[in-house]
Specification:
This protein has nine helices and no strands. By secondary structure, the chain is mainly α. Helix 2 packs across helix 4 (73-92) and helix 3 (44-63) crosses helix 4. The radius of gyration is 24 Å and the shape is elongated.
């Protein structure tokens, strides 16, 4: 059995011998990345992808002249993999789009015209929100008003309070649409 590599040796391998570095890091840290990904809505294939991207990011980072490891390799691998996975989760999450709100205003309230399933779902979800939430979301997404204007119009003490309320309302809407 070979002797374990020091952190400096691993960084040196990241710069010079990607295969050897990858093999060492895979044996030492893949299970940790896999555990994190699978415990956070992923599967084994996702974990492999995240680990590959983590290695690429580490190889690129190690090539920077000013690169100096300020933590353990384990912490570095975990941090990079965690950030990659969380970004993938954010990017892949189904979001309520501005277009959904634009369509909301064009959806007939009676059954006069056929509605697409998505428009119907959005309309139903918006109708289930309280009046305050409906107003703030439509003002922001459909009427494109600034938070300061919304705060003044709806009686919030400042734009930050209106922004917090908009966030809570959007979370309610996403939840009703099964996206939250």
């Amino acid at each position: 059995m070979s002797t374990p590599l020091t952190e400096d040796q691993i960084v040196s391998l990241l710069r010079t011998d990607h295969r050897l570095a990858f093999g060492h890091l895979y044996r030492g840290y893949f299970r940790m990345v896999e555990y994190f990904v699978t415990k956070n809505s992923g599967n084994g294939h996702d974990a492999e992808d995240v680990f590959q991207e983590t290695m690429l990011a580490m190889f690129d980072k190690a090539r920077d002249e000013g690169f100096a490891l300020t933590c353990t390799i384990k912490t570095f691998v975990y941090s990079v993999a965690r950030n990659i996975w969380l970004k993938k989760l954010r990017d892949n999450r189904v979001k309520v789009s501005v277009k959904d709100f634009e369509n909301y205003n064009n959806i007939p309230l009676e059954e006069e015209a056929p509605e697409s399933d998505k428009q119907d779902q959005v309309k139903t979800a918006i109708e289930q929100l309280g009046e305050g939430c409906r107003k703030i979301l439509v003002l922001f997404y459909y009427q494109k008003k600034k938070m300061e204007e919304i705060a003044a119009e709806l009686g919030y003490t400042n734009a930050d309070n209106a922004k917090n309320q908009k966030y809570k309302c959007l979370q309610q809407l996403k939840s009703k649409l099964g996206n939250g």
